[in-house]
Prior knowledge:
Strand content: 35-45%
Strand order of the largest sheet: 14-17-20-23-26-29-34-37-40
Helix content: 10-25%
Radius of gyration: 22 Å
Amino acid sequence: xxxxxxxxxxxxxxxxxxxxxxxxxxxxxxxxxxxxxxxxxxxxxxxxxxxxxxxxxxxxxxxxxxxxxxxxxxxxxxxxxxxxxxxxxxxxxxxxxxxxxxxxxxxxxxxxxxxxxxxxxxxxxxxxxxxxxxxxxxxxxxxxxxxxxxxxxxxxxxxxxxxxxxxxxxxxxxxxxxxxxxxxxxxxxxxxxxxxxxxxxxxxxxxxxxxxxxxxxxxxxxxxxxxxxxxxxxxxxxxxxxxxxxxxxxxxxxxxxxxxxxxxxxxxxxxxxxxxxxxxxxxxxxxxxxxxxxxxxxxxxxxxxxxxxxxxxxxxxxxxxxxxxxxxxxxxxxxxxxxxxxxxxxxxxxxxxxxxxxxxxxxxxxxxxxxxxxxxxxxxxxxxx
Length: 385
């Protein structure tokens, strides 16, 4: 069986983190999201994989060549929609296939389960169904798909994962895959609803925090770095090669620390935290329930929780970030969220800054000490003085 992974979109709702990379390449638990999809396919015995790339396709191609040179890549020149992206892969499809998004997590058991059915949709109950395609089901089969309804008649949503045959291409009349599937249902094609065991989708940037938490629970403990004898490591903790853990630091898993990172003395790294390669955490810091990407530096005596920190960011000493309930406008829609901060790439902050419920764009410089940034969005490349 073949698999087609759609990885062509921009992921604009996850800005600023997708300004410089596709959503599928965002590292969660220190691995790009698309890697989990490919691993799930491999574990389900599916190795004939086609990836449709578009936005920043050179990054996708480079990563896939390093991960698995056998993966075929086709290009969607213009991001016109999911059905159009699938159409780009049609010349390489030789039989029945699975269709999956490249920016969601799905477990191998669910992949193997749906692969057994010729026409099927993987579904899952979700507490916020109006953000997705809501699915109506009768006797185990999909009867209707309602795309992002204001008032949802059901909590069951489509995961965007389907088992299809080449006949699907006869039903593509628009660029939207939901329209295609609705045409199939109207024509009497039975589409079985298969319940997913585990599925994670980061619709907004703060959704990466619970996704990170979930994927960290698949960790294996590894201690490859240099760990001080007085440091205390509890639970499942993966420490990469060349990493250093300073004296009297406490790490409580699940936690992953990337290679060549330096965790200073008297730090406290709490559960559900990932720290990317070459990170520097200076002494007396507290970090919990956060996703910290590569090459990040966090100054001493800082406290960060419930946050995402982009690559190459430099947070000065005595930074404080904590969760805050807030209403945020994303692409014209008001969304309620609770998080500490979403900080883009290459951000620099002065000492004694505090942030709660804020989104900080790429390349922002906060040049004044003792700033209290609450519930705001700061655009890319802004200088705050």
